[in-house]
Target: Cryptochrome DASH
Amino acid sequence: MLHLLPSSSSSFPLNPQFLLLRRPPANLRVLLLGPFHAMSAASSSSRRAATAAAVPVAQERPPALRAQFLIECLGDLKRNLMKQGLDLLIRHGKPEDILPSVAKAVSAHTVYAHKESCSEELLVERLVRKGLEQVVIPQGGASNQKKPQNPKLQLIWGATLYHIDDLPFSVTSLPDIYTQFRKAVESKSSVRNCNKLPPSLGPPPSSGLDEIGGWGTVPTLESLGLSMTKSEKGMHFIGGESAALGRVHEYFWKKDQLKVYKETRNGMLGPDYSTKFSPWLASGSLSPRYICEEVKRYEKQRVANDSTYWVLFELIWRDYFRFISAKYGNSIFQLGGPRNIVSKWSQDQALFESWREGRTGYPLIDANMKELLATGFMSNRGRQIVCSFLVRDMGIDWRMGAEWFETCLLDYDPASNYGNWTYGAGIGNDPREDRYFSIPKQAKTYDPDGEYVAYWLPELRSLAKERRNFPGALYINQVVPLKFDAGHQRRDQFNRQRRPGNMYRRQK
Ligand SMILES: Cc1cc2nc3c(=O)[nH]c(=O)nc-3n(C[C@H](O)[C@H](O)[C@H](O)COP(=O)(O)OP(=O)(O)OC[C@H]3O[C@@H](n4cnc5c(N)ncnc54)[C@H](O)[C@@H]3O)c2cc1C
Model:
């Protein structure tokens, strides 16, 4: 969130005058401005430059889904702020253009924002800082006593479970391997408590708003030039903190799912196999520290077991990718990844489109890709499987897959998305760099009755359960053979120049 304090205020966060919600993941591309740019079909993102030519214009639905979620976040934040005696100032544009003019209008001495870690967000931080340097705020008293000042940009670390200042190492010497990172933070760091909200956040600023057009209103999809028909199927997420807290309560306390999370978390169908917290975490509507407090409370009041711990274990993955992005900078978006591995990748458009649209001939892949397109969500198991298929079986440039996820995911977060993709593509810091997800094996283990594929591909429902994932000629043709089929290594037709003499290991 972004707070602007009038120059008369003395301390943050006691009297924030504005809260501007940012685009996920909690960056300075203010929610009211950036996300809708970023979601437009032809993104100008510098990260995308390398593959932009190969990635066709995004379809309407995915950007509209995330825009709708963010609109709901805004509406909820506005309502909650009004209950606290404040309001939400809403503008649509670039942060570096808008924030200086707002700061000037309300004579703000400081703009507060969460510190970011990825290149595009860091650029926005720099541009905002530069813009604020151009703003001159006259100080009270006789003009020759106090010099006019520029508003300052103060950046605060905020998105992770463990605070960056509490890590037992500097970011530059962060362990590259997840397990080493996790063990070090678990043994040497502790998670800070959540900050308590003051009883009142008001009063709102008494002057200056008129010259910048008032508080502004929550946009609608139509006002952003987007439209969408609701999908009747799959998860439907409602944006905002109220819904986020409701989900934590429901999953932990009402449905009592936390105690079995570790056993169910690899599921793909239904609302409760995993927490589904990610869209709210990514939009800054939910704090990982709050989740941690609730886990501890649950452990005291109900049960502490492997499952209760495992939610924290997963949140540490999220931290890990965030800190890795701070350590490795732009390289997590580049073809060779953090370790600059040179490999040969294909950008075959027809193959890529069959993956993107769910027409590969493999029900497990197609069902997952259809779910992503319809809902903006996919299970972690599904993400690993479709990622492995794209990079290992199709040999497609992993950045094309990452960009499609970036376009579609409600929980899109640059560090988690590109971190996981580099991991899956074997160019991240995975000690097992040739991790391969065998589709037949994954289907038998995680969708034994074909319920998941029949849900997203209804044409398969009439088949016998054991045939749904293996329909043969009763389904569309397979666009590529699998690298490993029925337990035998196949000739590596797609990637053979990439890893000579190197067999892809199978996923356990
Ligand atoms: C190729 C690929 C791309 C991904 N892109 C994203 C992304 O853009 N944004 C995102 O939030 N997650 C991403 N993930 C991680 C993971 O799939 C989702 O966080 C998870 O599926 C969200 O569902 P959930 O909240 O029910 O997770 P749960 O299983 O309930 O986990 C609880 C929380 O832990 C965190 N978490 C769990 N697994 C991971 C992981 N592997 N990496 C980072 N955090 C994790 C998430 O914040 C999640 O909400 C990606 C994974 C893969 C394999």
